[in-house]
Write a structure and sequence with these properties.
heterotrimer, A alpha/beta (324), B mainly alpha (289), C mainly alpha (309), A: 324 residues, alpha/beta, Rossmann fold, 25% strand, B: mainly alpha, MetI-like fold, MetI-like (chain C), BPD_transp_1_N (chain C), cell membrane (chain C), transmembrane helix (chain C)
Chain lengths: 324, 289, 309
């Protein structure tokens, strides 16, 4: 990996949801870092802890029931976990912003889209309401919404157009870090490509670092530099894109690749990963993946494997690689 | 076969509701209050120290004390005894008025929702007309027309709350009627009446039960209000609202006459509301905040 | 929008016709002979019979109803009070301002108490404040307002001597009636505000607002409240109707000369035209308030506004 300056570094982040039914270990001991201008893919199934990680960085984990148990989130050399609410508000939407999964529900139905973009500009830049509105219209134009539509309300836009509005809000203050939480999952396939291309070009234009949360390895191939694969709250494999695609190591990662249909290979049948995601309040002992793992051995149910650097900057958390 | 399965599922569903209800402390307090009240009403003859109309002009206006726990009224009657007997009237009015409203309103709502079109339009416009008159005013007018007595109060309060049941049932019928199991029942040749009775009503039961529980509370309140302005149950019957009304003239010197019947009403309504709220949460956990 | 309002106003006509029919029928079946009541118990039977003929009371039911509607529509005339012999419209209009003032004050009390309490309860769910407010609200719903009125008189007039127990001309005299009438509505509005806010606070767009770096107070008071208000406004509109009805009781406790008390007196005196007029008048007011609420919606919710076009 290049000698990028670190923008964000997450160290041993642990987030739990404490409910009456039990404690959900949403994120366990997570450590990742993002350099300036870099894009990190955060990949995993639903419930793997991707969104919680994102909300953790934003310090927006709903509390109760969510609680950040431990770890550090270091943004430009400062730990966000020690910051006051007021300091955090200056960072949110300005330095770090987020695109949410469902554009149909992420916009306030009783405010015009222009107002919603202008709001974030007014919060973080010392401009008048009128100037903020003009800047908002420019921003809407940038994401492909004609400026005369700024007076319209969210319900007057299609899903793809609403996601463009959400992107405009996220990019309005030119953040250093953009967290995109499955930004295309709720959209039609044709619209997905449009939105993804838009994000890619805007990212290059604004020189933004990005965390792309997805379960789609195709999107990773398209847009990411590095990838962290998550399973049941743990990062199981963490490396750059090329290494991951050419040389996946963790049995779960391999399983993910085997689950994707491939036109070129003439395989008779897909090989999905056996079994289901474990109950998050009652995770298996040891490696949480071991009940579904084709290569599991006895130790797997006893010991949680630590990340091992099997090649430069290629970390795998699996017992298979520990006794080299 | 299929029928048996559905019945079983239904029963376990109600068990589940009861399990959730039991966990709700407030609802259990409500249920306890209702239980005490029903017990009092049934065994009033044994519990009450005196009859409800045992007048004795030599012991008027006795304040609460050891002999008469809640004191005596302007005619020397024991207030506690009258309140105990009064529970019979309030419960009767509450349950029968709600019964009238739920049966008539429910049927109208079910028919409107099920058949739709012109019949729906006609019934719901009629409900709009009834809703345009504030319900207590409607009840007052009905009692004024029919004459003030227990039965007419029940009828008046019942009629005044028909529209809310009609609306609730219609809404749930509309959501249920297009579901697949109704299609299936129709496909195997069930007629409309059977579909409404066997399938739609049981599935629309939850909102009706909640509305009915809360409805008993408001029916008791309305009836007491009618009696308060002299259009309800007539003396010497120990209706709480009427007792309050009689006591209001002595409020300056003998506060207890009007205070205790009102307290009885409040505790009763409080219990019914606690239970009704709990029931709503238990029947539809999604609504719970 | 104008079209919508016009359509709604037109829809009021059949509703009011229906109300008038119900009211007329009820008064028709009410026992007691109006002619006898007007002439007094001692009047000779022949004279009463002659008077019945004059008043048209021997005509068939629908004929009488038709005449009632005709007079109502053409002359805005709903008869004369049997007791004062003055036109019913004048009787009611002279008393109506007090009722409207009372109901308005009641709703103001309800809104001023209910909405802030509901908001705080929702933002601090399960806190001591929330629990206390919810118990208080449930008690407020459970208290018969005529009893509450008496208890307020007992406390503030009899014991403390701070406020008068009757009358309705000075502000001091209006405090207790407004509190009495408004309490249960305040409780209902509190509960509605809380549940509506809790629903809205969970929405994704609230998270979006927080992700922008917006302060919590703006998130709650602008983003959340504006969305939560829609069901709250419905409840406020409905409560206004209940307050117009509930004014009957409150007016009789505090001796306020309003439409409610007029109606109770008229029922006891078998003064049918006044009762008819009172119900019609209150129903009309209630319907107009509901129409205004519906119009208010479109200002709160742009989604509804586009439906009205």
């Amino acid at each position: 990996m290049t000698i990028n300056q670190k923008l964000l570094e997450i160290k041993n982040l642990t987030i739990h949801y404490i409910t009456d039914e039990g404690t959900v270990h949403a994120v366990e001991n997570m450590s990742i870092e993002i350099g300036k201008g870099e894009t990190l893919g955060l990949v995993g199934e639903t419930g793997a802890g991707k969104t919680t990680t994102a909300l953790g960085i934003m310090q927006l984990v709903p509390n109760p029931p969510g609680k950040i148990i431990g770890g550090e989130i270091i943004y430009e050399g400062e730990n966000l976990l020690g910051k006051s609410p007021a300091e955090l508000r200056k960072i949110r939407g300005n330095n770090i912003s987020m695109i949410f999964q469902d554009p149909m529900t992420s916009l306030n139905p009783v405010m015009t889209v222009g107002e919603q973009v202008a709001e974030v500009i007014k919060l973080h830049q010392k401009v008048s309401a009128a100037v903020a509105m003009i800047k908002a219209q420019d921003m809407l134009e940038t994401v492909g919404i004609p400026e005369e539509r700024h007076k319209e309300y969210p319900h007057q836009f299609s899903g793809g157009m609403r996601q463009r509005v959400v992107i405009a809000i996220a990019l309005a203050c030119n953040p250093n870090l953009l967290i995109a939480d499955e930004p295309t999952t709720a959209l039609d396939v044709t619209i997905q490509a449009q939105v993804l291309n838009l994000m890619k070009s805007l990212k290059e234009e604004f020189q933004t670092s990005m965390i792309m949360i997805t379960h789609d390895l195709g999107i990773v191939a398209e847009i990411c530099d590095k990838v962290a694969i998550m399973y049941a709250g743990n990062v199981v494999e963490y490396t750059d894109k090329v290494a991951l695609f050419t040389n996946p190591k963790h049995p779960y990662t391999i399983g993910l690749f085997n689950s994707i249909p491939n036109i070129e290979d003439d395989v008779e049948k897909l090989k999905p990963i056996q079994g289901l995601m474990p109950d998050p309040t009652n995770l298996p002992s040891g490696c949480p993946f071991h009940p579904r793992c084709p290569k599991a051995i006895n130790v797997c149910s006893k010991k949680l494997p630590k990340p091992i650097e099997i090649a430069k900057d290629h970390f795998v958390s699996c017992i298979l690689y520990s006794d080299r | 076969m299929a029928d048996v399965k559905i019945v079983k599922k239904k029963r376990s569903q109600w068990m589940e509701v009861w399990r959730r209800l039991k966990q709700n402390k407030a609802a259990m307090i409500g249920l306890f209050i209702i239980g005490v009240l029903v017990f009092t009403a049934i065994f009033a003859d044994f519990i009450a120290p005196e009859g409800y109309d045992d007048q004795d002009l030599y012991r008027r206006f006795i304040p609460p004390g050891s002999k008469h726990i809640l004191g005596t009224d302007h005619l020397g009657r024991d207030i506690l005894s009258r309140i105990i007997y009064g529970s019979r009237i309030s419960l009767q009015v509450g349950f029968i008025a709600v019964g009238i409203a739920a049966v008539i309103g429910g049927t109208l709502g079910a028919v409107a929702g099920y058949y739709g079109k012109r019949l729906d339009n006609m019934i719901m416009r009629l409900m709009d007309i009834l809703l345009a008159i504030p319900s207590i005013l409607l009840a007052i007018s009905i009692v004024a027309a029919l004459g003030a007595n227990l039965v007419n109060v029940m009828i008046a309060v019942g009629i005044a709350s028909i529209p809310s049941y009609a609306r609730i049932v219609r809404a749930s019928v509309l959501t249920i009627k297009d579901q697949e199991f109704i299609e299936a029942a129709r496909a195997i040749g069930a007629d409309d009446f059977r579909i409404i009775i066997k399938h739609i009503i049981p599935n629309a039961m939850a909102p009706i039960i909640v509305q009915a529980t809360l409805g008993v509370a408001s029916a008791i309140l309305s009836a007491a209000g009618l009696s308060f302005i002299g259009l309800g149950i007539q003396p010497p019957n120990p209706e709480w609202g009427a007792m309050l009304s009689a006591g209001r003239y002595y409020i300056r010197d003998h506060w207890h006459i009007a205070t205790f019947p009102g307290l009885a009403i409040m505790i009763t309504i409080f219990g019914l509301n606690l239970f009704g709220d709990g029931l709503r949460d238990a029947l539809d956990p999604r609504l719970k905040n | 929008m104008h079209k919508y309002i016009l359509r709604r106003l037109l829809m009021l006509i059949p509703v009011m016709l229906g109300v008038s029919f119900i009211v007329f029928t009820m008064m028709y079946i009410t026992p007691g002979d109006p002619a006898r009541i007007m002439l007094g118990e001692s009047a000779p039977t022949e004279e009463v019979e002659k008077f019945r003929e004059e008043l048209g009371l021997n005509d068939p039911f629908f004929f009488q109803y038709g005449r009632f509607v005709k007079n109502l529509v053409i002359h805005q005339d709903i008869g004369r009070s049997y007791t004062s012999k003055r036109p019913v419209t004048i009787e009611i209009l002279s008393r109506f301002p007090n009722t409207l003032k009372l109901a308005t004050l009641g709703i103001v009390v309800a809104v001023v108490l209910g909405i802030p309490t509901g908001i705080i309860s929702a933002t601090k769910q399960y806190s001591i404040f929330d629990n206390a407010a919810m118990v208080a609200a449930l008690l407020g719903v459970s208290m018969p307002n005529f009893w509450q009125g008496l208890m307020l008189i007992l406390l503030f007039s009899v014991h403390l001597g701070w406020l008068p127990s009757s009358g309705f001309s000075s502000y001091k005299e209006m405090i207790l009636p407004a509190l009495t009438l408004g309490t249960s509505s305040a409780a209902i509005i509190t509960r509605m505000t809380r549940s509506s806010m809790l629903e809205v606070i969970r929405q994704d767009y609230i998270r979006t607002a927080r992700a922008k770096g917006q302060t919590e107070s703006v998130v709650i008071n602008r983003h959340a409240l504006k969305n939560a208000l829609i069901p709250i406004v419905t409840v406020i509109g409905l409560q206004f109707g209940y307050l117009l009805g509930g004014a009957v009781l409150t007016e009789s406790i505090f001796g306020i000369s309003g439409v409610g008390r007029l109606m109770v007196e008229s029922i006891n005196a078998r003064n049918f035209p006044v009762v008819q007029g009172g119900v019609l008048f209150i129903a009309l007011t209630f319907s107009i308030v509901n129409l205004m609420v519906d119009i208010l919606y479109s200002f709160l919710d742009p989604r509804i506004k586009s439906q009205y076009k």
